[in-house]
Amino acid sequence: MPLNTIQKGDCAEIMRSLPKGSVDMIFADPPYNLQLGGELHRPDNSKVDACDDHWDQFSSLKTYDDFTREWLSAARDLLTDDGSIWVIGSYHNIFRLGTILQDLGFWVLNDIVWRKANPMPNFRGRRFTNAHETLIWAAKSEKSKYRFNYDAMKALNEDVQMRSDWFLPLCTGGERLKDDNGEKAHPTQKPEALLYRVLMASTLPGDTVLDPFFGTGTTGAVAKKMKRNWIGIDREDSYIKAATKRIAETKAEIDNDLLQTVSKREEQRIPFGWLIERGLLKPGAVLTDPKHEHTAKVGADGNLITDTADGGQQRGSIHRMGAAAQGAPSCNGWTYWHYRDGKNYQPIDNLRQKLRTELAKRPDTTGTEARTLQ
Amino acid sequence: MPLNTIQKGDCAEIMRSLPKGSVDMIFADPPYNLQLGGELHRPDNSKVDACDDHWDQFSSLKTYDDFTREWLSAARDLLTDDGSIWVIGSYHNIFRLGTILQDLGFWVLNDIVWRKANPMPNFRGRRFTNAHETLIWAAKSEKSKYRFNYDAMKALNEDVQMRSDWFLPLCTGGERLKDDNGEKAHPTQKPEALLYRVLMASTLPGDTVLDPFFGTGTTGAVAKKMKRNWIGIDREDSYIKAATKRIAETKAEIDNDLLQTVSKREEQRIPFGWLIERGLLKPGAVLTDPKHEHTAKVGADGNLITDTADGGQQRGSIHRMGAAAQGAPSCNGWTYWHYRDGKNYQPIDNLRQKLRTELAKRPDTTGTEARTLQ
DNA sequence: ATCACCAGTGAATCGGATG
DNA sequence: CCATCCGATTCACTGGTGA
Fold first, then answer.
1. Verdict on whether the full-model pTM lies above 0.85
2. Which residue from A87, A112, A104 is spatially nearest to A142, judged by alpha carbons?
3. Which of A102, A162, A257 lies closest to B95 in CB terms?
4. Those residues with Cβ within 8 angstroms of residue B58's Cβ, 6 or more apart along the chain or in another chain
5. Per-block average pLDDT, block size 10, for chain A (374 residues)?
6. Using CB atoms, which residue from B109, B301, B374 is nearest to A261?
7. To the nearest 10°, the Cα dihedral for B17, B21, B27, B32?
8. A208-222, A285-299, B281-295, B312-326: which has the highest mean pLDDT?
9. pLDDT of B138-163, one tens digit each?
10. pLDDT (tens digit per residue) in B48-75
């Protein structure tokens, strides 16, 4: 795999030449097929520098669809089974992209709206200001165990779930690459903040990220900063030259420990029985629910024991017995059951956390056991 | 023309029976083809009342496409040459709708994002909160002299061009129609404010507006208020009954309350993570408290990271880590934590203020940032 | 009259490991 | 392939009740 390099050529062809199932995530910013008419002027009569490059011209919708199906199909084969893809577009092409993604078997996870902080106004006053672009995030298939760093996204948003509408400025000012004449090097350079969020959401450090329409290499630059491996593909020498220089000047600046995000789901599993084995809870201890409406006794084997209405007993895991007490389909026993700590009641999750901290300090003695029991 | 009545039956069939070129605008809220799996429960174990009605079930994407092509084709013939159509959908169906619209010769004018003020969260934490729906506004053809009430839209928006992202609350409370059992009469009733803006943008009083998926008749009720003629089509007796009653009780008067967009909040919320995404702070930057007694490092996800006495690490939001450092129950992390600016230390609140000023320069007037600029 | 608290709810493609 | 079990997971808003 040609990691951390730019390949020159047709992206479908090059993707077909790489080993199948070898890429964790693909970010694609394909031609939008804008179909612009004549020139557009601002109210002050200055001319709008539109995207009229040859690579954005297609003779018909069918030509665009064929082109799209070709590269998306190659992209799908390149992804690992649990990989995912991001594509970005506007109303000119996003419906074609979305339809073909679905037809090829991709499973759409979200459509994301990039709300532009500073869009170009509609100078003619004939439509609404086109103030957003759309990203589609899709897994390779319905069965994929795609990666989503939920906790990182929540943390980025001050502990509130990240929504499907993102408000970010355009790429302007110093971030915008210029060519030797001081003109913008690429007509549609995307802001790094957009890629930062995409990479943070759906990849891990060390993952391989491919961008088939690399342009000025925003994906590569952000991937390098965030210690993801990247592969870029483009057909234009001028873009490859600009991207190469840009990425060479970019440092992998973020430390490993800073790149880590914690997810409860990925923490070490602690069976309830370990609390008893290690004396954090004694057999016979009485647990209650938060409202003190139900009680259960701790059995020596890690089961809980409750008395039933008919004078019998019931036993089961902390989760099963919590669900039964509430008449609910499921229950997180760790947060439901509380133990007595002096005059207060604490969730048994506190004991789990305590044990987890201890185990982390002594990885040599307990690590193997913990790992094998996971 | 059966103006201001509801027709019962298949919408494509009924549209074919009406005179061609006789309708000025069509608003369509077709089935979304959600393809839901099993049941979904909230964290409190209550069940989500999903949209699982028979009319939303299609056996395949092809079946859905055939259905869509059929009614959109009939709709196109029904429009005047200068007429336009609005369709609404989610990522499940909007790409199919958009592709078929384009294939039939409709000319897309805008895609509009309805950002929901109060969407349902993602309960499992597996994706981004699906916080918007998409509307497509299209003219009958590229040559259409479609109607767009530019000045009305600008006036609605405090004299700034209306953007393509609209921030509106869901239809809840008193506006939501209930059946005889007190249950919601329709699973997906749209808010009147949404229809108000659509009608205000693209029709004139006296115009004829048709809704082929009439449901509880929101389109008819708002059209009546705004003195547009309306035609509704639906297949379900229960919806027709509810819509008939609703429109009979609606008066043909323009309700000024509807004119208002959701009021702006005083200040927009800036998550700490935005400073990192936008490069105002780098991951790894060291923050200190005003007395330089505590330090914390900035994580890539917007959490702060501190070293604990026992050699471990702790992470959390700026507020939580500020509280922990002081042993206080709460803390305003924005004023507590300081970053190094040359030789001086400045509260990170300065960076927030800087970003806020930048954002304020480009006010998102359409819609109120509320808590969710995102 | 006001406030605090609780319950309910909205177009939702909402697990993963183990046996 | 399927069954079983563990255990992680929610935001904004409305309306009712009781102090």
1. yes
2. A104
3. A102
4. B31, B33, B64, B67
5. 97 98 98 89 89 91 97 98 98 98 98 95 95 98 97 94 96 94 95 97 97 98 98 98 98 87 90 95 94 92 90 92 91 94 89 90 49 31
6. B301
7. 50
8. A208-222
9. 999 999 999 999 988 887 887 789 99
10. 999 999 999 999 999 999 999 999 999 9
Residue B265 domain-assigned (yes or no): no
Residue A370 lies in a domain: no
Task: Please give the single-letter amino acid code of residue A160.
Answer: V
Instruction: Using alpha carbons, select from A141, A125, A105, A117 the residue that is nearest to residue A43.
Output: A125
User: Where does a domain end: A258, A293, A326?
Assistant: A258
Measured at the CA of B184, the angle between CA B180 and CA B189, to 5 degrees, comes to 130
Any domain includes B371: no
Q: What is the predicted pLDDT for the residue at B361?
A: 52
What is the predicted pLDDT for the residue at B327? 79
B283–A255 C-beta distance less than 8 A: yes
Between the CA of residue B221 and those of A208, A340, B4, B148, B198, what are the distances in Å? Answer: 53, 59, 10, 21, 13
Interface of A with B in 338-357 (CB under 8 A): 357
Same domain, B252 and B276: no
By Cβ distance, the residue of B96, B273, B373 closest to A167 is: B373
**pLDDT score for B159:** 77
Torsional class of A354: left (φ above 0), alpha (ψ -120 to 50), beta (otherwise): alpha
Whether residue B169 lies inside any domain: the answer is yes
Which domain range does residue A139 map to?
Answer: 5-36+45-258
Looking at this protein, which amino acid is placed at residue B331? C
A165-168 vs A107-116, strand pairing mode: parallel
Residues of A in contact with B125 (CB under 8 A): 150, 154, 161
Question: Number of structural domains, chain B?
Answer: 2
Chain B residues 88-127 within 7 Å (CB) of strand C: 90-92, 118-127
Chain A positions touching B276 (Cβ under 8 A) are 156
A250 CB-near residues (< 8 Å, 6+ apart): A221, A224, A225
* Strand C within 7 A of B373 CB: no
